């Protein structure tokens, strides 16, 4: 291991990029990997400015920006705090050392939020308790982090800021094993989730609002195959109906998805029924109007269009009537903003966790299945839907188009069958069966 850096240069605690103050000796203006020849295409004079210039390219895509900022921030802080050297002086060996660090960020008190309590809790970026990590990274997360950092280094080389990419030597690809989807729920376990949702309490207005929202959210993720980011990024006005060649009226959903690609998702009769059920539970018309701006999934608001009093997951406190001693439940109406990605994730994880506990209560023989269910997340529903569609012999070309796995280019017209057949087969063979 290298000798510890000079104490005068060490940052005591990591800080977010926007609050980070780096000593001149560590800011990278004279980094050993700085490009010395050619014409620089960046005005950045130090590593922090160079990272900000790279991140500025993604400000219009919040999810991508947050992910890229997190990885660049972690590497920069590790380089400064752990090695006492600028990011622009990192070597290939340093990058390999960082990769091992991600699997076990130590010392935990320096790097992991709430390390003494087992980690996991997030703090706002302006909070003194903020840390770059919430625990060790999985092998998949480490690979993703290194891919993002390779993008960063490659861009800095292309921009004339760095002389070379220290991760370039790690890019040789090893032979890949045949892909195998493991993060999905087999039909019996999926039935346990549906059974739990069906058993959720509906005694109060708040209970009913939560039940209908959960039921609709799981329907949308499973029957629509939507990604978690697509739930908050699309609206009910993107549902539309059109007549096929046989005169049948069919509903579709236009989804703006990953990479700003647009795809058409067949809206089955079940999905349309659940949409109407959800909207009517909110006091809305059964069917959406064209170009309606209502988000696909709403927070539970106290008044129409109001978000006052909302909690972190977008739900409002039941306060109406309590001031005068009344115990009557408040009337919940839709708010105007969508659920955040984090709120959707929290709702889905909570349902899976509670369904897992319900399954565990059935006996020790269900422990393994309960453990698997507790690991599930929103993206598991997408994998589950795709796996179940394949099991029911839905044409894989239809699955590809439903899920947006391929761009809808002119060439793809020759690869998939017509859309009416895709809609009919999805409707007949892909069901949720509440």
TrEMBL record:
UniProt entry keywords in alphabetical sequence: Cell cycle, Cell division, Chromosome partition, Cytoplasm, DNA integration, DNA recombination, DNA-binding, Plasmid
The protein's name in its UniProt record: Integrase
One Pfam family per UniProt: Phage_integrase
Region (Disordered): 305-334
Domain Tyr recombinase, residue spans: 180-427
Low complexity composition-biased segments: 305-323
Transmembrane segments: none
Domain Core-binding (CB): from-to ranges: 45-157
Organism from which the protein derives: Paraburkholderia largidicola
InterPro entries in the cross-refs: CB, DNA_brk_join_enz, Integrase-like_cat_sf, Integrase_catalytic, Integrase_recombinase_N, Tyrosine_recombinase_XerCD
Major localization listed first in the record, in broad terms: cytoplasm
GO biological process: cell division; chromosome segregation; DNA integration; DNA recombination
